[in-house]
User: What shape does this take?
Amino acid sequence: MQIFKTTTDLKHFLDNCRDNNKEISLVPTMGGLHDGHLKLVDRAREISDIVVVSIFINPTQFNNPEDLANYPNTLDKDLSLLKKANCDIVYAPKISDLYISGEMVKNYNFGDIAALMEGEYRPEHFNGMATIVEKFFRIIKPTKAFFGQKDLQQLQVVKALVKQMKIPTEIISTPTIREKSGLAKSSRNKLLSSTDKENASLIYNCLLYCRNNKTK
Ligand code: PAF
Assistant: This one.
């Protein structure tokens, strides 16, 4: 597994792979890896020649500075998990490799897909997420990119992004991986107490109950 810290080195390496007709896949992450991410890597591994995993805590998609400061940063553990998962390349750049000083997020128009639900409570979150994902797609030029269904709204925004920007990357999604309790695995679960986790699992269990007990 090779680790790249700069766009220039990564691009140079990937151009070489492409010249050798290798198909490149991307699994974008912000680190704090868990089984949900590893499922994406496994899927990518099955259907691609070169699997690139990016680890970058993207500051522009955080509307709350405290959330950004507390976001789990577990690079060493992430690297050993990725090595075991047979990942080929990790791209773990610094902020200055991807953003010029003072750079703003792009102002996309995704309509209601980004304006409703999470978009209503996290202004600029989806513009920030799409800005970095578009940068990754332009740098890495993956044939396929993998996103979890856990972030359903993000997945729809990314699909709209590739359509709007005419980016020739196929978006592939994999199902949510859950704890035994039903709680979706998520990097931010590390920030929850055991009571918080128990309470959060009620959401999924209530939804399951409704689905299983609905009257026609
Ligand atoms: O889902 C995430 O971890 C992030 O939103 C992503 C897609 C890596 C962009 O920063």
